[in-house]
Amino acid sequence: MNRFTEYGITFFIWISGIILIGAIGVLLSFLVYKGIPSLNLSLIFGETRPLDALLLRKEVVDGLFPAIAGTLLLILTSIIWAIPIGVASGIYLSEYCNLRWKRFFNLLLDILAGIPSILVGLFGFTVSIFLHKHLSEHIYPCFLISSLALACLVLPYIIRTTEQSLSNLPFSIKTTALSLGASKLQNILFILIPYNLSSIISGIILAIGRCAEDTAVIMLTGVVAMAGIPSSLLSQYEALPFYIFYISSDYNSQEELMKGFGASIILLAICVFLFTLSNILKKKVAIRFATH
Amino acid sequence: MKSSLEKFAEKGFLLSAILSASITIFIFSFMFLFSMPLFKGGQIVQFFRLEWNPYDGKFGILTMMVGTGVIASFALFIATPFGIGCSALISVFSQKGLGKFLRKVVEFMTGIPTVVYSFVAIFLLVPLIRDIFEKGTGMCVLSASIMLALLILPTIVLFISDAFNSVPKSYIHAADALGASPVQKLIHIIVPSAWKGIISGLVLAAGRAVGDTLISLMIAGNALQIPRGLSDSARTLTSHIALIIASDYESPEFKAIFVCGLILFAFTTLIVLILRLLGYFEILRER
Known about the structure:
The complex is a heterodimer.
Chain A: H1 3-35, H2 41-45, H3 50-54, H4 65-96, H5 99-114, H6 117-134, H7 143-167, H8 171-179, H9 184-213, H10 216-220, H11 240-250, H12 254-290
Chain B: H1 4-40, E1 52-53, E2 58-59, H2 62-93, H3 98-109, H4 114-133, H5 141-165, H6 169-177, H7 182-193, H8 195-211, H9 214-219, H10 237-243, H11 252-277, H12 280-286
Antiparallel strand pairs in B: 1-2
Helix pairs in contact in B: 1-11, 2-3, 2-5, 2-8, 3-5, 4-5, 5-8, 8-11, 10-11
């Protein structure tokens, strides 16, 4: 290899790293520069007094509060569906399943993990039409459908982290309680799960992050621009990512646009916090195993 | 002897696993069932035509397939050299200084919501592109591809730099002992032994690029036309699904989006099968 090619390649490698850091830097500083001035209490609560809004005494009309509340409620509900099923499936795949069935389950779950989120949204939408036709006239795309669809979207993450953390446990930990006479279930519930709690939680936090940022699923399953706080599982609702999407195409004034930037910063902060937390937990686990 | 609680728990675990796995089957069946009438009537051929004009009875989704193909491949075209460059910086050239910082940045990027990327791009990148081309709105294939490249870069970089790191240390030490420069190590030792990891990372990124909705929906312009250049607006399969507002659920217009869905499903399955063939999931599990 001649010297110039070598210099060229070295130059390219350094420059690609610098460009990437620069691009993200420009992106974030633009967002912060534009959005910081709009970050204040009235961005969230509008004209309503914060306490009244939080106690649901008054409706917030021109603030982000309904969207933020919608997103948080949505995350909570989806996670409530997804955690028990996800963790139980993970336990089954790691501890009970034989190899042949495991391959089959894994194939389906890998596909599920790779399916574009808009397809999961379309699935939720179709289910709601189906239920509308065959079960009850009152079912439309709504909060319940969205939360179920989001649960489908994040289920593979929870299953994967649970299964892998259980499978990767050192043999000695897996067998000690069994040799002392514990049953298989006792071993799983009292030894393996507590031992693995932080990596299972890191998977769950990752799932929460996906729920918070996802827009494609909810836009087909019942999110709307103006709805207030959802009053029941069957009502429509607002959410932060959809608000950002909506504002980007439909803003009427500079003021509304500024609210879009404010909302972007809030969503970014939530997601980055969750992903960082998940990463920290994952690293903590890795270190513990490395020193085991 | 197993107690009844043990048996009950095992049944519960099994049931959850079956439920989770059957979601994939459900999604496929729904797509298939809703587009089924079209397969039966032999109408399917007309979906692979170019024109989409519901008022004229034309429901060709080929335009969206081309849109997806062009935007995703151009994004990969941009992201691949950058991705490999950044991975080399992280794993080979600068493991302590800039590379370590870059890895942190890339990990941070995985947490940025897609909708935030697109929102910022509308007010930052799109005006820039509009000025460069001096025509149109700036919502075009190029804008979408650049943002999509940024979105899939973390997938590529994290995966490939891990693949670079898992090259046996003895190879690297041997090359060091022979006085190899970092570039020589990279080209002659690391890339040849990590090629499976590189391809897996790129295939994974291709899957993300095709499946992403928000970036193409918000900044590709969504025009129903075959893009003839980078400055042309285009519509992808995913945004076509997101944009549909059909009131009549029996119309072919509505059913056509399920054909889009089936195509995306088939593509996802293909990606997963390729990754299996490459041993990607084994690579992941060993880690």
